[in-house]
Design brief:
Helix content of chain B: 25-40%
Number of strands of chain B: 20
Helix content of chain A: over 70%
Largest interface: A-B, 67 and 70 residues
Largest sheet of chain A: none
Shape of chain B: globular
Shape of chain A: globular
Distance between the termini of chain B: 39 Å
Number of strands of chain A: 0
Number of helices of chain A: 14
Distance between the termini of chain A: 11 Å
Chains: A mainly alpha (about 350), B alpha+beta (about 525), C mainly alpha (about 300)
Strand content of chain A: under 5%
Oligomer: heterotrimer
Chain lengths: ~350, ~525, ~300
Amino acid sequence: MLRFIISKLGVLIPTFLGVTLIAFSFIRMLPGDPIELLAGERGVSPERHAQLMADLGFDRPIWEQYFSFLWGILQGDFGVSFTSRTPVLEEFLTRFPATVELAGCAIIFAALIGLPAGIIAAVKRGSAFDHTLMGISLAGYSMPIFWWGLLLIILFSSPDMLGLTPVSGRLSALFWIDQDTGFMLIDAFVSDEKGAFKSAVSHLILPTIVLGTIPMAIIARQTRSAMLEVLGEDYVRTAKAKGLSPLRIVGVHALRNALITVITVIGLQVGVLLAGAILTETIFSWPGIGKWMIDSISRRDYFAVQGGIVLIASIVMTVNLLVDFMYGLINPRILHRR
Amino acid sequence: MIKRGLLATAALASMLTMGAVTAEAKTFVYCSEGSPEGFTPALYTSGTSFDASSRNIYNRLVEFERGSTIMQPGLAESWEVSEDGLSYTFKLRPGVKFHTTKYFTPSRELNADDVLFSFNRQWKADHPYHKVSGGTYEYFSGYVSFPDILQTIEKVDDLTVKFTLQKPDAAFISKIAIDFASIHSAEYAQQMMDAGSPEKFDQEPIGTGPFQFVSYQKDAFIRYQANENYWSGRAPLDKLVFAITPDAQVAYQKLAAGECHLVPYPNQADLAAIEANKDLTVDSQEGMNVGYLAFNTEKKPFDDKRVRQALNYAMNKESIIKAVFQGAGNAAKNPLPPTLWGYNEEIQDYPYDPAKAKALLAEAGVTELSTNIWAMPVKRPYNPNARRMAELIQADWANVGVNAEIVSMEWGEYLSRSQKGDHDTVLLGWTADYPDPDNFLSLLNCASAKSGGNRARWCHKEFDDLFQEAVKVSDPEKRTQLYEQAQAVFKEEAPWVTVAHSVVHKAMSNKVVDFRIDPLGGHVFYGVDLEE
Amino acid sequence: MSEVQNTAEQSSVPEQISPLRQQFREFWFYFSENKGAVVGLFFFLFIVFIALFADLIAPHSPDQQNRDFILIPPFWQDGGSIEFLLGTDAVGRDLLSRLMHGSRFSLFAGCIVIVISLTFGVLLGLSAGYFRGFYEVIVMRVMDVILSIPSLLMALVLVAMLGPGLRNAMIAISITYLPHYVRLARASAVAESARDYVTASKVAGAGTMRLMLVTILPNCMAPLIVQASLSFSTAILDTAALGFLGMGAQPPASEWGTMLAEAREFILSAWWVVTFPGIAILLTVLAINLMGDGLRDALDPKMKRS
């Protein structure tokens, strides 16, 4: 196990350095800069421009800038956002819970529907249910989620149509609750404002569906094929021949396979999920890190973008590591095979 | 977790009644268009930040009357200007209290130290607060260039402050009514400095205004409550919430669903639907801005005024405005908006006349002209869709034999390259910083042709002389006359196609009482009420 | 990971050298077993047809503005007209014609992304697997770096850097897809290099390039083709997503995502300008995915999954 961890770290450290290098250099190659954007139509004189760039530390040699960036990261200092003048790490941390909440709910939603659907489809292989379900899941997999979100808003939120769910945001503006954890469901639950929790839940529904659609389709498909494989194996056939009910066989084997599938999907999809979060958060004005990154890119907020990329990549890497690890726990064979 | 899933379904099934919680307190929800950069207006330049700070939690010495550009006393009860126009003495209003909040309790009332602090922080590089929170003061040092205007600011006594200028400036009083000149509490600043967290001063604001800050959840909400001790009387509202909703579409839906009371920038496409909704109202006013197409007069053939006039004639302005603004814009004939004093009513715009355009082009000896139109990549108040506008102009010009290619690039690059004069023709515009023709016409003088702010790069002796003269004169009538003449010269020379002045629309719930559109683009909630 | 292992297993069964026709017949046998795949194929061919002959079959020019017919609804609604079957957009352009021309952008983007990422991915992957050593480590770490940044974020930053536009969007998306190909190709190359037939060719004096491209490559084509069919559909989705965020094809181009972005403000007042481009994307991607499923069944009967 120790060797496993060490070998993983041997890969992770250079990858992490690579990410910092990419984040650092890409952002400096962007055309336009925050000072020009801030000045807008008024323009800014070359002298003042140079002065402001120097204030931001952009007049130093490029390698010096990189190493101070790297040194800062090691100390947990990701610089200060140009637009808000607050530390990037703080900016990130205040928004991160919103994204985690959304992504977590999306995965749970996807698993709650995708798993049973996949299992039933596998057991009833070739039936009308199987075909319909696989058709739907392929459609879900092919869904342009930015359009899907707009469509759902029209259907469910528009007062002219169903008017069931709120349009955007995380909570109705009428509730004044404290953000202790940053997770709206928890904060709303512990607050004494009546109805706040209900409001938080209702705000989560559409974004969860939109972000959960693709993972749900993937989980359903993967579960089905994993189940088919298990059902085809000798010992299951033997069990069947012995007269055990298919339901029981499925029950016993479904759990492990389901778990492995979900973990794999989460592991492989964490990047996809975060990418989807960028679109979902944009559509629903969800105050998470995806939206923050888009805004920061368009404002050329160098420190926010480079810090944000490094932080997001670190999360992806950490999750992948955890998934590998859990994979090993559930299925020790894999660990040994490596 | 599963339980929560069930709850979600149950909640959905029970026909959620969003926002139907009727608290006794009057809570006004404003669907603001974006997140503020911070709460000290002097540090920032965006209207979004000003709405969240200066316009609701701070006061200035002199202020614009709500919903107009008329000056009225703010924290200064009165002021005197010396004969030579070089010194301004302000008498402060006695008994003005700063906000008492969870994080600050004032021990004294407003005095001259607060005024000195507010200006010196921006002015003096050695001021302890100068470098705090990035320390760039774009308005103070850039746009109104106070370092070039101010000589001294002195405390005469506790309630008297004297500003001395280096040279007379007819627009000085308008300038100190701008957001960056908001008055902060020097006492609070000192407290934060002593506590070793000066940047908190800019994140948890203390002002004298009608609302006081409660909390800010990034990208989500800003919460305020009424200042019980407001010097001009407590606001009718109890609580004010900015629900940050960048998407206009979404904001409209929230408005329709009763989740917010006012939407600042509704989509033009939705206006008809909003007006048709019996629970909603749309108010409109002509904005203080102008959208234009500037010809690069340094490049051939745009150095020839006949070519510029011809391309003016070639544009079907009415149909362009209809397609781009969808009713939210009026054709412009002057570089000034009609809501501003000094606007010349007499000017005749170039009518749509392709035949005349062709004749003029032929006269100028221009055949088969290939040029470009730069179109902004962003939505601005004076031009909600520059690309669409460029496509339409392109089609119109093609009719008179002018081939134009549409060029677009990243906004920052667009601004800096057009400042350098890389374009043939460029779409841009201007929104007033302060209500004075000087603010618009300085885009066309020789100094800005040199610095690049003048996108037409147009330096015309007669126009420039009139402009220079008007800054020095203090008599408003004389100034009006000079500006009117300047506009006539401008129209004849046609360095721009003046395209449009946008009409500003505010969509609101019928419950909203007495919201007034601010010609300078702000959103002020003092005086607004909600009726049940 | 599992895909990689499967590749190794699969290629351990040496392919029988059979005439091309035989191979194709076998392919078609498995492919046509999947009804969905056949439907997908026909729909896909239909879209290809539209894209190729858009100029001839589109009722109007996609850029022609009819300023008297702004935001006309589809013909079956009140106020609609037969002249504009699916209605018009905000400057009076025929929506149907724009959608037809838009198919060109999507298919083109899909193809180019595959060509770029496949070519560079295979070259990098094969060379890494063949040469091993430090070179391999570098290549694989770079791929890890790309994988650890969410693809859309990576693409957004790249496009912001290169400048918004269809060409740069395609380049950016191709880069985010590289790691999949590199990993597949490298794994195959590593596995294949050790096999007897490679050693045999080596002994026979085959050059490095020849070994990599002629000897090893054909034996790991199947998973690459499956991967390519997958990325064809995601490339179309990602191009549209970038267009939607204003970073892809720029107006007035009738790329579907860009059309959606432009139409967004009309979501409640003119449903057709929002709905149809989305449906076009969904159907096209769905058809390609259906086809991809069939392709996987046909090329890799052992992997038979769905």
